Amino acid sequence: MAVDDEIGSGNAEANETAWSVARLNDEIAATLESAADRFPTYVVGEVSDATAKGYGTFFTLRDVDGDETIQCIIWSSYRDRIEGDITEGEEVIVRANVDFYTDGGRTQLNVKNYWPVGNSERSQQLEALRAELADEGLFADDRKQPVPSFPSNIGIVTSLTGSAREDFREAAWGRAPGVTLTFFGATVQGTNAVPSLVGAIRQADQDPDIDSIVVTRGGGADDTLWCFNEEPVVRAIADCQTPTVVAIGHEDDETLSERVADKAAITPTQAGVVATPDMRAVRDQVVALERRLETGYAAIVTDRLDAITRRVDNAIVSIERAADNRRAQIQRAADLEQRVDTIYATLTSARLDELDSRIESALQGVEHAAETEAVTATAARGRVAGLEARIDQAYETHVQREVVALERRIERGYQDIETSTDVQAAQQQARRLQIVVLVLLGLLLLGIALWATGVL
After folding, report:
1. What sections of the protein cross the membrane (predicted)?
2. Residue 316, class by beta-carbon neighbours within 10 Å (0-12 exposed, 13-18 middle, 19+ buried)?
3. Residue 162 and residue 188 in contact, taking contact as beta carbons nearer than 8 Å
C-alpha cells in the first residue's frame, strides 16, 4: 500500500511538472533564436536528396567526413538568384541561419545562398575580414551615430540609372516633401564598383551641406552584391563622419557595409523611411500636442481661475469680516468715548464743586485773616503811636538833661579857661569839647533812631 501511495504521489508530481510538446518546441525555438550569434553564417557539406517545389527546394546537407546530416530549405526567391542548379553529390558552402520548425519539431538550415566548394576561397576571405572588423569594434553599437530625425539635405550614393534611386526618392518625398536629396552617382556592381563607391562616399562625407548619407542598391545575387563586402568600401563607410544608412538588396541579403553602417535598412524604399521623418505623423503629433496643450492650458487656466476666484472670495469674506470688526471697534470706541465724556463731566463737575468750596473757604479764611490783620494793624498802629510819644518824651527829657549837664561842663570849662594862663589853649580845648559834644549828640540821635526802628 505504501508503494502504491509513493507511485501515485510520483505520478501527480510528474503531471504537475511535465511540459506539453508545444511548450517544449516553443522553448527550443526561443533558445535557438536567442543563441543565433553562436551559430556560423556559412556551413560546408555535400548535397543529397534535393527536391524542388514551386515555393522552394528541400535538400539534405551531409557532413563531408561523416554520416551526420541536417535538413535544408531554400525558398524560391533566393533559389532564383543562384546561378546553376542544386546538384546532388556536389560539395557546397551555404550561407544560412539555423531555423527550428515548431510544428514538426525539426531543426533545419534556412539557406540564403550557396556556392560550390571551388568558390570557398572568397568565402574564407569574407569571414577573415568579418573577424578583423569585429576585433576592431567596427560592428559595435556604441560607435554608431544617431541618424538625424529631421535632415534638411540627404546625400544618396547609388546608381543614377537603377530603380533604387527612384524607390528611395519616392519613399523619402512621400514622407518629407521638403527634404533636399543630393545624389552621388556610383557604379554598384562590376569591376569598377569598389573605387566608384569609395569616391562617391567620400565626396558625400566631405560635403558640409549633407546631414546624412544613404548608400543603397536593389537586390541581386551574392556575386553582384559582393562589392559591398570589399574592405575599401566597408572602411569608407565606417570612416564617415556623417551618419550613414546602408540598404543593400532585399530582406535577407547581408553585407559587411550594412554591419558597419550607423543604421541598416532592408531595401531602398525602407532606407527612405529610415532616413526621413514622417511629416504627416509629425503634423498629426503636433496637432495632437496642440490639442493637449490647449486642453491642458484650458484646464490649468480654469483651475487657476477657480483658485483665484476662491482666493478672491476668501479675501472678500476676510475684508468683510475685517470691516465688521472695524465697525465694531469704532462703535466700541464711540461708546468708550461717550463713557469717558460722561465720567469726565461727572468728575470735572465734582472736582470743580470741590474746588469752588475750597476756594470759597479759602476766601472766607483770607477775609477773616484780613479783618484780623486789620484789627491787629490798628492796634499796632496805636501801640506804635504811643511808643513814639513815649520815645519823643524820653528823648526830650534825656536830651534836655544832657544839654543841661553839658552846658554846665561848658561853663565850668570856660571858667577854667578864663582862669588859665594859656587862653589860646583853653579856646582850643573848648572847640574840641564842642566837637565832642556834637559827636555825642549825633551818636545819641543815631542810637535813638536805631532803637525806634527795632521796636517797629
Report:
1. 433-452
2. exposed
3. yes
Element (H, E) at 180: strand 180-185
DSSP E strands in 224-360: the ranges are 244-248, 263-265
What pLDDT, on a 0 to 100 scale, did the predictor assign at position 13?
A: 65
Beta bridge partners of 354: none
Residue 115, amino acid: W
Tell me if 197 sits within 8 A of 233, measured CB to CB. yes
Give the domain ranges of the chain. 19-119, 141-277
Cβ atoms of 215 and 244 within 8 Å: the answer is: yes
Identify the weakest region by mean pLDDT among 148-152, 283-287, 322-326, 412-416.
Answer: 412-416
Cβ atoms 153, 179 nearer than 8 A:
yes
What pLDDT does residue 114 have?
80
Report which of 123, 69, 122 is spatially closest to residue 95, judged by C-alpha positions: 123
84-88, 157-161, 189-193, 218-222 — most confident range = 157-161
What CATH number labels 19-119? 2.40.50.140
Provide DSSP, 214-231.
EEEE----HHHHGGGGSH
Query: pLDDT band for position 157 (50/70/90)?
Result: very high
**In 98-254, which ranges are continuous DSSP H helix?**
120-135, 163-175, 193-206, 222-225, 231-238
Q: In what order do the strands lie in the sheet with 263-265?
A: 180-185, 153-158, 212-217, 244-248, 263-265
* Side-chain-facing half-sphere of 7: CA atoms under 13 Å: 4
pLDDT digits (tens, 9 = 90+) for 325-377: 888 888 888 888 788 778 877 877 777 777 778 877 877 877 777 677 777 76
Q: Is the pTM here over 0.90, yes or no?
A: no
- List C-alpha distances in Å: 453 to 326, 384, 387, 389, 450: 79, 11, 11, 14, 5
The superfamily (CATH) of domain 141-277 is Succinyl-CoA synthetase domains (3.40.50.261)
